[in-house]
Amino acid sequence: MRREEALTLLKEYVKNEKMIYHSLASEAVMRAMAKRLGEDEEKWGLAGLLHDLDVEITQADPKVHAMETVKILKEKGFDDDTLEAVMLHNEQAEHGKKRNTIFQHALAAGETITGLITATSLVYPDKNVMSVKPKSILKRMKEKAFAASVSRENIMECENAGIPLHEFAALALNAMKEMEQKTTR
Fold first, then answer.
1. Which of 53, 63, 102, 110 has its Cβ near the most Cβ atoms within 10 Å?
2. What domains are defined for the chain?
3. How far apart are CA 59 and CA 65, in angstroms?
């Protein structure tokens, strides 16, 4: 599937602008991770873009979220590797499996850090991702009460994917900043 088709599919299923932003940010982070790790940027980017396709259908119910996305993407011809990564990004779903590949760890970490970066930007006076510094993200990682719903454990899976946390924070932030620049032009 080409990106344009994937974006149309996303907007067919997801209406909430914040969720669309999260999906675009996840795509940007996944593309950056793929590039850094020598993986398929298109495949990883599409996984990031579409991983939450069913969030409104399932009302983000953690027991079933991602399962409908897998069904939709399977019908669209996505490979098993992508389907598995999408399914496993939600460790609370009742699928009984654990993440065990670089791709799976990357998607879990990549989509989760976008929430921490966005929350961090909101404490800046201009509330803009462009103002955020990597050290602020690392500082907020340590503050469990800050953006408490953001799983620090998922973000730490960047290390299972082969990227140290300090490098991952900078990589993800830069990816989101580049995305912001493209969307504001």
1. 110
2. 3-180 (1.10.3210)
3. 8
The amino acid at 173:
L
Contact 136, 113 (CB under 8 A): no
**Pseudo-torsion of CA 159, 160, 162, 165, nearest 10°?**
-10
Quickly state the pLDDT bin for 121 (edges 50, 70, 90). Answer: very high
CA distances from 49 to 10, 30, 127, 167 (A): 8, 9, 23, 22
Distance of CA 39 to the CA centre of its chain: 16
For 77-109, the pLDDT digits (tens) are 999 999 999 999 988 877 778 999 999 999 999
pLDDT digits 0-9 by tens, 4-17 = 999 999 999 999 99
| CA atoms of 37 and 75, how far apart (whole Å) | 29
- pTM, two decimal places: 0.95
How many CB atoms sit inside 10 A of residue 27's CB?
27
Identify the three-state secondary structure at position 64.
coil
